[in-house]
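fwd from M.: "can u put these together and see what the complex looks like"

so here's what she sent:
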Amino acid sequence: MAADDVQLAVTGVSKRFGGVRAVEDVSITVRRGEIASVIGPNGAGKTSLLNMISGFYKPDTGSIVFDGHDITRAKPSEIAARGIARTFQNIALFAGMTVLDNIMLGRHVRMKSGILSSIVYWGLAQREEIAHRARVEELIDFLALQDLRRQPTASLAYGLRKRVELARALALDPKVLLLDEPMGGMNTEEKEDMARYILDVNEQWGTTVILIEHDMAVVMDISDRVTVLDRGRKIAEGTPGEVQTNPDVMRAYLGGAPEAQGEAA
Amino acid sequence: MSEARTLPQCLRANAERIGTRPAIREKNLGIWQPYSWRQYWQEVRDFALGLAANGFKHGDRLSVIGDNRPRLYFAQLAAQSLGGIAVPVYQDAIASELAFVLDHAETSVIVAEDQEQVDKILSLREQLPELKLVVYDDPRGMNHYSQDFLKSFPAMQEEGRAFGAQHPDYVEKAVAAGKSDELALFSYTSGTTSRPKGVMLTHANLLLSAEAFAAAEKFKPTEEHLAYLPMAWIGSSLISLALHILVGFTCNFPEKPETVGRDLRELGPTIGLAPPRFWENSLTEITVRASDASWVKRKIFEYFRGVAERAQQYAGDGRPVPIALRLARAAGEVLIYGPVRDQLGWRRARLVYTGGAPLGAEVFRFFRAFGINLKQVYGATELSGLCSVQKDAEVDPDTVGHVLPGMQAQIGEEGEVLVRSPGVFRGYYKQDDATAEAMTADGWLRTGDAGFIDQRGQLVIIDRARDVGKLSDGSSFAPQFIENKLKFSPYIGEAVVFGAAQPFVSAIVAIDPTTVGKWAERNRIAYTSFQDLCSRPEVHGMVGDEIRRCNAALPAATRIRRFVVLNKEFDADDDEITRTRKIRRRFVAEKYAALIDAMYGGAPEVELSAEITYEDGRKTILQSRLAVADIDAPAERLKAAAASRAETAAAE
């Protein structure tokens, strides 16, 4: 599945917040069409890394290259337009808006008609709206949200809101999908469903997935490759099998014995 | 209606006669997508060719499993086109049940809706020696399956078209050669007593029953129908298959089961059939929504509900409705009844039926009072679904109407209803003894229902004949009648009453988790789980009040005196109810013998260990202590029981 061409190359990025070194000299290469996971204990710098890829943070050092374009300093909207979509750890939906409208919003960067023609709703604006709605309906079908179209997202159960967020990210027709703990706070059944959806997205559209997740079982189950961060540094990477047997990883997860740090550095 | 004598022949005739009219509409990607009769036939033909290419022969069985999807209907008709037999099965059946039916019917082809159903079938593969081919409708997630007996629906049709190029008019000839007395459908009865039995029905059975129904009710080709009931239920096959093709009206398919409510409302069907459970749930939902509304709205709703029910009472008694009440009802039509009908999706409904089991009179009157032309039908799987229907002018909750033209009913010994009709089945598949038991020597079907024919010639069903019981003092009682009265309460989900050879009537009540949950919230009763909720003395008190209300409408001898609130819902996976939600009385009586003993033994509480089955077939034992409540008992006794329970809990 994973062709050997690099789609996203993160090289030596670091990010500090005051005295805190959130991410230090981390490099990751992600190949087109793979599911790459980033794991690590709390505060390992996973979300910071994701924020740098999606342009919310600018790295202090290092570079991020996506499909041959340097996006290290690009604005989040520019990065989204290039085809990198994301979801958030703490769900960032418009609570008062319906499921349908939230997903339609995801199409925004793909819309060309201006405010005026949208108000008149004639010609391009109308054709665009219909085409976008058709795409959104495909996603609604894909994620089995048919019964919730007109529901305000605030009224939905947690697991469902996560699914709506995934739908909105997919509405961008992304080449790379960044998922920040898509299964956090879910029960086993919801986790299984979400894992199924991630695999289906990857399979159906060949979307590259970068996944941050705490649930090791899920990560090991669905990832092609896994990168392990601890205290801002990369301590291991490889296939799920390789990572699972890596002694540094085991130490980092079993409470971080001091020598683990020494070895990693 | 036409000279065609098999379902595929009717379909073909429609494709020629009304080829461009919409036959089917499926809601897909948010839009109702139509198939014309011509497209319908083409889909069926291509799939039939695909079946032929894969060796499907005259008399072979094809099963469909899934929610109502057009392709599952195409598949059934395709099998029938080749002289095969369709065997729809319940999509929510657990693996062992499914294995029994598929193996018993010796199904060679299964058409499954999606990956979930395919997985279920693959897990049973070893037990199904006759199975040769599994076809799936939804390709989602099916990429990694490499089994060569697994094919997608379009791939089958593709194969079919290639086969058709070499065998011109293959299906057309097969359809033309079809005969009306050939078997068309095995409908497995839900079996309130035993293993499911395969009811063998011919094309003539289904078409003649549908024709009699159409003649009595004058269905038009412009009717709109939404198919949302399990395909394996005979009522579904009768309306969504036979009647639909015979009359040529449009059959619509919901987006998915969860969207049925919205789809009903969008579509506004003109006809509909649903079992009592549907109407009970619908009423519960209305009541809950009304009680959640603001104080003013609630009062308005309650006032006009009262008006409607009083007016309905006058009409039911054949008395003229007083003018003041008529005016109030006219206002209610604008303010309440119309909008409620609209919310439910029955605004355009002309003819709506309840069937499959008796519906409580109170629920029935409610919908009629709100202007929905709800009528009772009576039938059985062995009768191709239907043998009587109420006439528009003669609707009352106690009867099931007149026997359809061409059918006859009479009352046999011990009050059992016997029916003779063109819909009477050809026997149970591979169960000749059972077939012989079900028929009288001169060809009448024993329905197993106790009933009589009233002075207007309408059929009245009392209950299942073997369920009508006698208390030890000799007074007889009909359990289902009492249970339906209980279920009128929005808080009571299911109830089973007992009393045969006992001094009084008692009941096991399963509360409705949603409504009782809301009730607890409103009354500030804290609870942790459904089990905890069921054990709250307040809930027992409330259920007791509901039972007292129901008792008021019962003859003194058959009033419920003691009851237990069960700490689980009755579940088809536990064999307590059938897939069509009929109580399996014997089984429940056996399973909960300890509860029944306690109710008649006078014990204040009882230890219960009940086996429960998860959806995936795993089992576990539920251990608990239940309070037995007296209807006339002082509340102190309940409190004492609760206190002792709390002590036990503390001791643990």
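replying to her w this: The longest helix of chain A spans residues 124-142.
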